Amino acid sequence: MDIIELDSLNAYYGDKKILNNINMKIKKNKITAIIGPSGCGKSTLLSVLNRMLEENGGSTRGNIAFKGKDISSYDKEEIRKKIGIVFQKPTPFPMSIYKNLTYAPIYYGTRDKKKLEEIVQDKLKVSGLFEEVKQDLGMSALKLSGGQQQRLCIARALTVDPEVLLLDEPCSALDIKNTAHIEEMLLRLSQEYTIIIVTHNLSQAKRISDYTAFILDGELIEYDETEKIFNNPEDNRTKEYIEGIYG
Question: Which residues are in the ABC transporter domain (predicted)?
Fold first, then answer.
């Protein structure tokens, strides 16, 4: 089942075209990896999907459907609740771990203390952080390690129960251990959420994704099941990119 459909999508910053005629169908409850060289438009594609591009002075042409409905017909706040995003650099709020995880639920109307405590505990367990921080929920989130902060940010994005989770190179600054934590978490989460991850780490794309899209100079060169993309690419440019990385 497709949850997001892009039809002839073009994205611009001013007069500069960043994405050119992108056509994709994102499968529900699957992990889709987006690969390609720096500056090819990967992060722009994520910002299009939850309508952040327009907040940053960009614009789009073409069609984007979320669950069969034009994305522009959703209120921005509603679409960002349904399609959450986590950035490359961890961005915990300068407040306690507990308040980081209750901020969004309270904003959207949850006031019951017991319910909030359940949300905090559940999302910390999902992120694999609960045992590490359960005695220090009042501690500033800024005191966590980089890997813990990134897992907290993913947990925070899940506190409003989105349907899609966008991740922009969430492991690029992390060590092997923390990267493994996050990859294991994403594999578990894909049973409940649709995940789209931008990554320069082709090994990571192979390990965790069901589908992979290769973007070059703003164009979608190839999009297929991950195994096929890596083992039998149809386009020589995909093959050259993969071989260039592996040397």
Answer: 4-242
Superfamily of chain region 2-246: P-loop containing nucleotide triphosphate hydrolases (3.40.50.300)
The count of C-alpha atoms lying within 13 angstroms of the C-alpha of 111, restricted to the half-sphere facing its C-beta, is 1
Q: Decide if pLDDT at 247 tops 80.
A: no
**How many Cβ atoms are within 10 Å of 247's Cβ, its own excluded?**
4
| CB of 233 closer than 8 Å to CB of 37 | no
**CA–CA separation, 176 vs 147, rounded Å?**
10
Contacts of 180 (CB under 8 A, 6+ apart): none
Mean pLDDT, the chain, rounded, equals 93
The structure's pTM equals 0.94
**Domain locations in the chain as residue ranges:** 2-246
What is the mean pLDDT of the segment spanning 215-231?
96
Concatenated DSSP letters for 38-52?
Answer: TTSSHHHHHHHHTT-
Q: What is the CA radius of gyration of the chain?
A: 18
Measured at the CA of 221, the angle between CA 217 and CA 226, to 5 degrees, comes to 125
- Tokens of residue 157, six digits: 């994005």
